[in-house]
Sequence to fold (85 residues):
Amino acid sequence: MAKVVMYTTAVCPYCIRAEQLLQRKGVEDIEKIRVDLQPELRLEMMEKTGRRTVPQIYIDAFHVGGYDDLSALDRAGKLEPLLAK
Fold:
């Protein structure tokens, strides 16, 4: 299973939905980077992704984007192959 990293906050409904979708796909371990607890990590996230909203999801080195991007990958049948690596 691929490594999943998600930039997140405690009260983000899209982060919760992304985590639920990933769990339904069999992901058991998601490394969560809490940008609300460590604001300097939000700056790191913005530099890496060019985006300021959470979640920002990585599957291995591939930047998926946010929940809408993750959901679109799933609908297109491209999420499971990414996770299977």
